[in-house]
Every structure is written in C-alpha cells, then in structure tokens.
Amino acid sequence: MSEPFKSYSTLVTISAKKQDESQNLAVTAAQAADDRKGGDIVLLKVAEVSYLADYFVMVTGFSKVQVRAISQSIQEKVETELQRQPLRMEGQAEGTWVLLDYGDVIVHILMPQEREFYNLEAFWGHAERIDFAALS
C-alpha cells in the first residue's frame, strides 16, 4: 500500500471516529435535557454546512429556572459519562438562552420566546435535522 493512501485511510478513520464521538455527545446532551423535561429537542448535524461545530442541540425550557436546570443537567451528565466540560458557557445568569459550547457540539437552551424569535432551526435549515424523539 502506498504511503499517501495509508495516510488518507487513517484520516478517514479518525474523521469517522470524531463524528461518532460528536453524535454521542449530542445525544447525551439531548437525553440530559429530556431528563429535565426540556421541550422540542432537535439535533442538527451541521458538520457539512458549517465549520462551527458538528452538531447543534436545540432545547426549549419553559422558565428561567428550568433553562438553568437543563443546562446543569447537561453539564453533569456529559462530565460524568464523557469526561467533557464546556469550553464556553453563556447566558447562565439571565436564564433565557444558555449556550454550552463543547467545540464539536453546541447546545442552545432557550425560552419559547427566544427560540421563536431567533429561529435557529430555520437559519440552519440546510443542515440535516435529527428529531430526538426518533432516537429515544
């Protein structure tokens, strides 16, 4: 086997493994949100259309307290099961839109008004939509 082919094969294997890890992180976050009764959980596979992340996870929380509880649940479950912590967190104090950035997965937990106004699903409408209900 020639050296260039070997390198390409290794890169494809690493890329596939990274995609599996990213999907596992996205599903784990979605499950943690579901444990706290998060609503309308949607996963978007944005890897093909964005360099920002591989997946976005969108969740609705119906009060500021619930938004924070969902965020905390996700952080705890991801740290316990996957030994990962967010690289960046925003919005925890306000509680209307919390963002957890894990690098390959970005989680958005929004109150209904913010989710409707920003309509991230429509903005990223060209990404593959994965309905969490189908995974559980």
What does this structure look like?
With 136 residues, the chain is an alpha+beta fold. The chain has a single domain (3-135), classed as Beta Polymerase, domain 2 (2-Layer Sandwich), CATH 3.30.460. It has five helices and six strands, in the order H-E-E-H-E-E-E-H-H-E-H. The chain has helices at 3-35, 64-82, 112-118, 120-123, 132-135; strands spanning 39-45, 55-60, 88-90, 97-101, 105-110, 128-131. Strands 3-4-5-2-1-6 form a six-stranded mixed β-sheet. Strand 3 (88-90) and strand 4 form a beta hairpin. Helix 1 (3-35) packs across helix 2 (64-82). The longest helix is centred in the first third of the chain and has 33 residues, at 3-35. The termini are far apart.
Q: Beta-strand percentage?
A: 15-25%
Strand order of the largest sheet: 3-4-5-2-1-6
- What name does CATH use for the topology? Beta Polymerase, domain 2
**For this structure, what is the CATH class?**
Alpha Beta
Q: How many structural units, i.e. domains?
A: 1
> What overall geometry do the principal axes of the alpha carbons give?
globular
Count of strand segments? 6
What share of residues is helical? 40-55%
- Look at the helices and sheets and give the structural class: alpha+beta
Known CATH architecture: 2-Layer Sandwich
How many helices? The count is: 5
Radius of gyration: 16 Å
What is the N-to-C succession of helices and strands? Answer: HEEHEEEHHEH
CATH homologous superfamily (4th level) name: Beta Polymerase, domain 2
Unreliable runs, pLDDT <50, ≥5 residues? 8-14
The biggest beta sheet is recorded as: 6 strands, mixed
Question: What's the pLDDT, averaged over the residues?
Answer: 87
Query: How widely separated are the two ends?
Result: 42 Å
